[in-house]
Amino acid sequence: MLFLVPTPIGNLADITLRAIDVLRSVDLIACENTRNSAVLLSHHGIATPTISYHNHNERSRGPQLIERMKVGQNIALISDAGSPGLSDPGFYLVRKCWEEEIHIESLPGATALIPALTASGLPSDRFVFEGFLPVRKGRKKRLEAIRTETRTIVLYESPHRLIRTLNDLIHVVGEKRMASIARELSKKFEEIHRDELGHLLYFYAQKSAVKGEFVIILAPPQFQ
Q1: Would you say 66 and 100 are in contact if contact means Cβ atoms under 8 Å apart?
Q2: What angle do CA 2, 60, 87 make, to 5 degrees?
């Protein structure tokens, strides 16, 4: 059996009791980064063996995990933070489990998407999750789709591409569009800024450096 287990996006206490039980009881934990995961596992007294599973080895490591599960082992998949398969490794292994008729359980838990959306004060009744925009190929096409989208849009972005993405969004929807940017959710330096895109760009452009993972919430065009 494969268990998809969300892990905290910052605060180590943001993990469910069920997730801890699963991580303690499985035969093996597949981690996006074993060193990063060791901090969480040690904090909660989890001594289960770990193995690396990430974007660069999933095609070779995935079949190995499948064979383990086919002979009866239970494996938990975790990413560095948040839910596996949601802008993190997981899709390939889950697809292979379906092909091999291996049972999958996906646990609810921490993700940056929902806290950023609900704290934004922007419409959350209808939204679309876009994840990370393509860096090169396909970026223009995705931005054009954003131009005509009528629902709230949720994007993930890294610190070194934040300014570029804000400029691109202004180009397609205008500097007056309302948005919210959440940074370092659940961590010590958590911050959420809500303003027009033009003002948000100015705010972050004035900083000598920006750190952390960002969630951008873009309001629908009809929002005032």
Answers
A1: yes
A2: 60
Q: Return the ∠ at Cα 139 (arms to 136 and 142), rounded to 5°.
A: 165
- DSSP labels, 193-217: EEEEHHHHHHHHHTSS---S-EEEE
In this prediction, residue 44 carries a pLDDT of 97
**Helix, strand or coil for residue 52?**
strand
Beta strands 214-218; 152-157: pairing state: antiparallel
Contact by Cβ (8 Å): 190, 11: no
Query: Residue 141: CA atoms inside 13 Å, Cβ hemisphere, count?
Result: 4
Tokens of 21: 């039980």
Q: Residue 44 contacts by C-beta under 8 Å, 6 or more apart in sequence?
A: 12, 15, 20, 23
Displacement of CA 47 from its chain's centroid (Å): 25
pLDDT in tens, 58-78: 999 999 999 999 999 999 999
Q: pLDDT band at 224, cuts 50/70/90? A: low
60 contact partners, CB below 8 Å, separation of at least 6: none
